[in-house]
Recover the amino acids of this structure.
């Protein structure tokens, strides 16, 4: 019998000292079919219309020069040349929504979704302005890049805090829904390792928001990093998961983020379990200051993998 996610997470929290070992074991236990499936490049890859890329992949590149806008435009141009049709911005680099929309149009790109700070009960955001900018940009899906429970934010410490935050997000999501848009929650590992009784913080966020108001953008790497099997989470929350952040995990290098298809996550099994996923979003968090990491390589390899993977 499969244990509920909340109970599994309790065990993970109790054995937190073995987190890395657990992750490596989970990842290495994945069937070896992924590499073979990717190499086959058979008929059934992810359609280009459903593939996007989170531009945070290029955060180090954008911030390392004197002209961020020029670098941002170069990124968009090169992604279009690779074959991407969609991008997921995390910043507009100083452009207005109108200017950014025109830039996307120039390169034949669409903003599939957007990371933007939607606030919290302690620090509410101007949701009306966000929704208006999204309308101009042609964006339906949006949400914060991290929940307010992040250790580096530190706003949520109790179960009541998480419930209040979920209720805040539900209200934002209702406002978005009435404007024809959809709010998502993007996770890291701590939503699954923060546990109250038999519920994880992620459980609380899902249980105290309505599915018509709030969906999940599930970051597969962080689920695995927390010691859980992404397939189990996908199966448990089903239709609530409408976007996937597709990034890989390398258990041989301290469980660091790996270029998609070169790590140990069993993406075919995850994709097979997923239902009604609208966008498969390539992402590789930048290794700031590391000249060996090439975000353009990560983007190209990720695109090639998704268009050829069978599941």
């Amino acid at each position: 019998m499969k244990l509920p996610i909340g109970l599994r997470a309790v065990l993970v929290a109790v054995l937190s000292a073995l987190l890395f070992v657990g992750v490596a074991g989970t990842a290495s236990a994945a069937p070896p079919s992924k590499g073979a499936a990717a190499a086959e490049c058979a008929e059934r890859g992810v359609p280009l219309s459903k593939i996007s890329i989170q531009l945070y992949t290029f955060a180090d590149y954008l911030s390392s020069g004197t002209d961020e806008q020029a670098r941002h435009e170069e990124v968009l141009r090169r992604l279009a040349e690779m074959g991407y049709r969609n991008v997921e911005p995390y910043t507009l680099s100083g452009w207005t929504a109108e200017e950014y929309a025109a830039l996307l149009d120039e390169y034949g790109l669409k903003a599939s979704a957007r990371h933007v700070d939607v606030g919290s009960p302690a620090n509410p955001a101007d949701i009306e302005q966000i929704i208006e900018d999204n309308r101009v940009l042609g964006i339906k899906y949006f949400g914060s890049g991290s929940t307010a429970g992040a250790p580096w934010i530190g706003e949520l410490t109790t179960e009541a805090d998480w419930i209040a935050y979920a209720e805040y997000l539900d209200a934002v999501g209702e406002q978005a829904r009435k404007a024809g848009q959809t709010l998502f929650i993007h996770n890291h590992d701590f939503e699954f390792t923060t546990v109250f009784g038999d519920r994880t913080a992620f459980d609380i966020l899902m249980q105290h928001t309505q599915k018509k108001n709030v969906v999940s953008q599930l970051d597969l790497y962080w689920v695995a990093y927390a010691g859980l099997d992404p397939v189990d989470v996908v199966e448990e929350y089903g239709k609530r998961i409408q976007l996937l952040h597709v990034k890989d995990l390398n258990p041989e290098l301290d469980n660091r983020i790996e270029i998609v298809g070169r790590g140990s996550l069993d993406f075919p099994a995850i994709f097979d379990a997923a239902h009604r996923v609208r966008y498969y979003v390539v992402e590789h968090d930048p290794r700031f200051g590391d000249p060996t990491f090439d975000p353009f390589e990560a983007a190209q390899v990720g695109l090639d993998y998704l268009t050829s993977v069978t599941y």
The radius of gyration is 19 Å. Residues 71 and 187 are 28 Å apart (CA to CA).
